[in-house]
Write a structure and sequence with these properties.
The chain has 4 helices and 7 strands. It has helices spanning 19-39, 47-65, 104-109, 136-151, and strands at 13-15, 68-71, 75-80, 86-91, 95-101, 111-118, 125-132. The strands form 2 sheets. It has a 4-stranded antiparallel sheet. It is elongated and about 70 Å long.
Length: 157
């Protein structure tokens, strides 16, 4: 039980974006800042844009790195943020379909993006980006079926 008195679900699985994905996501920012730093060798005014771009890159890196996906038997929780955070909770019985996406580089790094299409009004599409390549899609499917049968939800097309 938490401090309010409601039961707390035990995490079935806890994931976060891999370190390789974090570097992949900020690669363009790093490349741009290196270009400005090289240009700063000739023009001193380019140091400030390089520092600003590096700051943006590191902020984006830590924002992605601090994203946590918590899968329980009935919900999927996504926690994002550095200084303050946002917590998105999705009831698993609302998941309608899922898509696994991998680019060529993601296949080499053995990471993937799992996109969940839901019937939720607020969050129609939820993406678990940069997670390790696994059978998570099948696990989510099984948990969705269990959550639907437990809640007695019947899907109508």
């Amino acid at each position: 039980m938490d401090s309010i008195g409601t039961p707390v679900q035990q995490p079935y699985l806890q994931l976060s974006p891999t370190l390789a994905y974090c570097f992949l996501a900020i690669f363009g920012w790093l490349f741009l800042s290196i270009g400005f730093l090289v240009g700063a060798y000739w023009i001193n005014m380019l140091c400030l844009p390089a520092i600003i771009i590096l700051g943006i890159a590191f902020y984006r890196f830590w924002t992605i790195r601090n994203t946590i996906y918590i899968l329980t038997e009935e919900t999927l929780k996504i926690r994002t943020g550095i200084f303050s955070y946002t917590l998105i909770t999705l009831e698993l019985y609302r998941v309608k379909d899922y898509i696994i996406t991998q680019s060529f580089i993601m296949r080499i790094l053995q990471i993937m993006t799992l996109t969940l299409i839901t019937t939720d009004k607020q969050d129609v599409i939820i993406s678990l980006t940069g997670i390790k390549q696994s059978t998570l899609g099948d696990t989510v499917r099984e948990l969705v079926q269990k959550a639907r049968s437990k809640s007695k939800i019947i899907e109508l097309n």
